[in-house]
Amino acid sequence: MTEHPLQNYPAPGQPVDELALSEIKGAILAKLRLAIGKDTGMATKRDWYKAAALALRDRIVHRWLTAEKENYDAGRKRVYYLSLEFLIGRLFTDALNNMGLLPVFEAALGDLGVGLDELRKLEPDAALGNGGLGRLAACFMESMATLAIPANGYGIRYDFGLFRQIIQNGWQQEYPDVWLSFGNPWEFQRAEVVYHVYFGGRVEHVEEGGRDRAIWRPGETVQAVAYDTPIVGWRGQQVNALRLWSARSPDPLRLDAFNTGDYIGAVAEEARAEAICKFLYPNDESPAGRELRLRQEYFFVSASLQDLVKRHLAADGQLRSLAQKAAVQLNDTHPSLAVAELMRILVDLHNFRWDEAWKITVATLSYTNHTLLPEALETWPVELFERLLPRHLEIIYRINVQHLALAEQRCPGDIEFRASVSLIDERGGRKVRMGQLAFVGSHRINGVSAMHSDLMKETVFHDLNHLYPSRITNKTNGITFRRWLMLANPGLTDLLRETCGEAVLDDFSLFEMIEQHASDNAFQQRFRNVKHRNKLALARLIGERLNTKVDPSALFDVQIKRIHEYKRQLLNILEAIALYQAIKDEPQRDWVPRVKIFAGKAAASYRYAKLIIKLINDVAEIVNNDPDIAGRLKIAFLPDYNVSLAEVIIPAADLSEQISTAGMEASGTGNMKLALNGALTIGTLDGANIEIRDHVGAENIAIFGMEAGDVMVRRKQGLDASDVIRRSPRLARAITAIESGAFSPGDPARFASIGHALRYLDHYMVGADFDSYYEAQRAIDARWQVMPAWTRASILNVARMPWFSSDRTIREYAEDIWHVPVRPGPQVVHAAGAQRGGKR
Q: Which of these is catalytic: 63, 452, 614, 673?
């Protein structure tokens, strides 16, 4: 494939090529007339967006088809990435940027009287994910294309995604996220690609040729229909596909019922099938919700494996070579049914002997673990499994027999060890353990930060690691700099290009060149000017959405992530209350103006997390309107957090809140995005914070609180925090204010449960870490007042972040787990960056 020249991405201020400009204008006008059916006088802004998107899509498809043909002709091994979430955000400017066409499209649209920026805002965020898990999958897909790894992502095409978050009177309200209401110009429906996915029924066993053969007689059939979205790598040299499945019934309308007047019954089967792809993470508090989630997981796993097996057979002709030509990555436990489904396909449909099928399965599959929370390692009641997937339960039982025989061989007579590693949890109702299944059925299991991978061996997979000692490896997460720097922060990108040269767009290790300018007054001023422009944009957005005026010269203190107790938004708002009380006590002091910015969604069924959102908004209502504070502290909760909102918040952040309870955050990627954009991190020694500290330098990050070992020790002593509160008047006063109704005068008991938990059930060590956190925040205030030193630390954060590129992460997956070649690239990011990090 031809190289994509640097000149196609002009330097700041350089004019675009006139011939290319004329071609793109003609292409957009042709799409407007022929695909949209409008002329320029009748076209709406949305029509212009779709016309421009389709003109761009045409150019992507040429690259896509060429890359696909080359990869299949060369017989290259392919990676299949299975994930229940792909938080891809808006694709228009992302694809323009990676194709090198952003400047020419911007100029062409400008000549046609349309602004690119206003058009991009018309594109809805693809509602295909929730948070870090889905965004990581999106970054990995982009990096795989950038590194020329033939790959397919597999997931579900959700009609409504997670939910649209509205804040009403401080409370989270959930509404459907109708992201597909105007169509999706990026996807191609493959109406001819349809697979049958089965549920229920019974299993029969017959003797054939001296072997037992299982025949699954399912009770229900659902069809999986493919939709493909192209994912463009940097410079457009490789385009991969994200294949999403939509569910439908083979019999969408029962005419017999319809003709007798039973109109609802006539479409009941279609409604039941379509429920699978309606909504990401249905509430699993009810039996119906649990069943729907299991149906979702099996639906996309079965369709994806059927598809990749068909691809492999078309290219290779036989399945014995599957592991040599296909690497299947399970992103978290959601796709772990792939272990049983691949065995079913090999044994039941292709007549492999069990032992050979098992070798192929284990060699093909690998599993990424994202959590140390035992409750997040999914389990399903055996009764539900038996009713919904009876053949898979038989397969899991047989896998377990062999697995437990190995456990007995390793630790003879140790009943507790066998119970610990078993795929079936016998305590409190029999359940299938999906994390255990993924572990046993994969040749590699990776954590997502060095600390997380080490803790996996010590905690959730301690005994499995003893049984399979070579399987756990580490692959620290990364982010795509094309999205999170070039697109999100063009001002900083231009400064890097001018300082480090144009090659910095391809070789992130060149960021280190700005280290020599970190103390230079003129460079610092230019760096601060970029940050200030970004803060002005965020201040405008806060004003528009919340009707809250914030000072862009204040310290912007940001915590943006899923609302969860272990991520400790509660600790953050407690510190805000204590700071508010301190300012009220001494209003004459020279307090550092600070804006605390929160964003994130709580799971619809997570009542305590939703109560924390209400607390944040109630505290904001009091603090933001208190004349004694005079605007020196403002609190803003921005609703409906998504990728596009993150792209505005992250470049404007001064301080990055990464304050999870130590030992509970697997990695985090928001911490990487914020540091890359020059925010200093305040955080615990948890997840990838540790590696960020090692790379940026301990003096350029603010670490506080207990370490993972301390947390374990304190938990063993109990969850009562009375002793901590007694020793901390500041903490006691803040909790008392919450309990007394100081922030909920109309309902004084509203937050009683929060107060009770903080005092007596402090599982997440909010109280134990409070004083350390408060003091770390006051040290941040002191640093902020010496702006040259702050700016230097901010610049060094940017300069030392290249190791956290998802390109580096994917290179490691390719080399250690998938065994696929990658496009040659700058090796210094991979090697030298890691060495420097180790020395700090």
A: 673
Same domain, 566 and 447: no
Range of the domain at 45: 1-74+95-122
Average pLDDT over the chain, rounded to an integer? 94
Phi, psi of 446 (to 5 degrees): -120, 140
Catalytic residue among 334, 391, 562, 695: 562
CB atoms within 10 A of CB 674: 30
475 Cβ contact partners less than 8 Å away, ≥ 6 residues apart: 368, 446, 447, 448, 809, 812, 813, 816, 817
For residue 325, indicate whether it is catalytic. no
CA angle, 452 as apex, 301 and 678 as ends, to 5°?
Answer: 100
Identified catalytic residue from 93, 146, 361, 669: 669
Catalytic: 466?
A: no
Q: How far is CA 755 from each of CA 54, 218, 746, 765, rounded to the nearest angstrom? A: 54, 51, 17, 14
| Alpha-carbon torsion, ordered 401, 402, 408, 409, to 10 deg | 160
40 catalytically annotated? no
Active site residue 535: no
Instruction: Give the number of other CB atoms < 10 A from CB of residue 482.
Output: 25
Among the three residues 474, 504, 519, which one is the final residue of a domain in this structure?
474
Contact assessment for residue 105 and residue 25, using Cβ atoms and an 8 Å cutoff: no
Q: How far is CA 369 from the centre of its chain?
A: 13
Whose tokens are 């149906």? That residue is 295
Please pick, among 78, 497, 564, 567, the residue that the annotation labels catalytic.
Answer: 567
The answer to whether position 836 is within a domain reads no
What mean pLDDT do residues 77-98 have? 97
Query: pLDDT tens digits, residue range 816-837?
Result: 999 999 988 654 333 333 334 3
If you average pLDDT over residues 142-147, what whole number do you get?
98
**What distance in Å separates the CA atoms of residue 460 and residue 326, rounded to the nearest whole number?**
29
pLDDT of residue 643: 95
Cβ–Cβ < 8 Å for 684, 793: no
Q: How confident is the model at residue 67 (pLDDT cuts 50, 70, 90)?
A: very high
DSSP result, 268-317 = HHHHHHHGGGT-SS--TTSHHHHHHHHHHHHHHHHHHHHHHHHHHHHHHS
Residue 8 — pLDDT band, cuts 50, 70, 90?
Answer: low
Task: For residue 823, indicate whether it is catalytic.
Answer: no
Clarify whether 669 is annotated catalytic. yes
Same domain assignment for residues 457 and 521:
no
CA dihedral over 334, 340, 346, 348, signed as positive or negative: negative
Within a domain: residue 729? no
Q: What is the length of the chain?
A: 840
Q: Is the pLDDT of residue 147 over 80?
A: yes
Strand order of the β-sheet with 78-82 is 188-199, 220-232, 239-248, 151-156, 78-82, 326-331, 365-368, 444-447, 472-474
- What are residue 680's DSSP bridge partners? 655
Q: Same domain, yes or no, for 80 and 39?
A: no
Give CA separation, 568 vs 477, 554, 690, in Å.
21, 23, 18
Sign of the Cα torsion 385, 389, 393, 399 reads negative
